[in-house]
# Entry
Amino acid sequence: MERDDDLVREGDRPSESIVLITGFAVRYNVLRNGKRQITALHVPGDFVDLHGFLVKEMDHAVMTITPCTVGMVPHETLREISETHPHLTRLLGVSIAVDSAIHRQWLVSMGRRSAFEHTAHLFCELLLRLRVVGLTTDDSFQLPLTQAELGDTLGLSAVHVNRVVQELRKQGLITWYGETLVIKDGPRLQQIAEFDPTFLSLKTEPR
# Structure
C-alpha cells in the first residue's frame, strides 16, 4: 500500500479485518465542511478495524500515512476462532479493549488537557506503543506525521501545533527533525501530561 491509500472507507461493509505489519495508518472522519478529525493512530501490530467484524458497517475511514504492508484476516476466520479458540478470542478482545482505552484518553486530552499537555501525552503514548513492537531507539522513534496531520489528530490548527512543538523544544523536552522525534526528558514530559500507562495494558498477565 502507498501513502494516502484508503484501507477502509466510511460506509464499507468489509468481509475481512486488517493487521498493520509495517508503516503507519490513521482512523478518521471528515465533516461536510471538509475538516478532518483523526481519531486513532495505528502502528505496526495493530488490528486497524477488528471491531468491523462485529459492527459490520464502518462509521469511519482508515488510510495509510506512510507506505504500508498489511495482512488481511477474513471475518469467517475470525468467526471460527471465536467459536473454537476461547483464549485467542480473549486476546482479540484485549485488542479491542486497549483500542477503546486509548480513545478514552484521547477524549480526556481533547476536553480537559491544554494543547501543550495533550501533545505531551500523545508523544508519551506513542513512545511506549512503538517500544513494544521494537520501533524505538532509546527514547527516539519515527513520527511520519506532518504538522497538519498532527493538528488533525490533536484538534488544533497547524499554526497552534507549531507553537506547541516549538515550546516543547524550548523547554528541552523533545527534538523533532524530519521524521525522527527524540524525547529528551521523559520523566518531566510524563509529569506535564499526567501520563499513566495503565490504559495501554502493557503488563503480561493471564487472560
Observations:
- The mean pLDDT is 94.
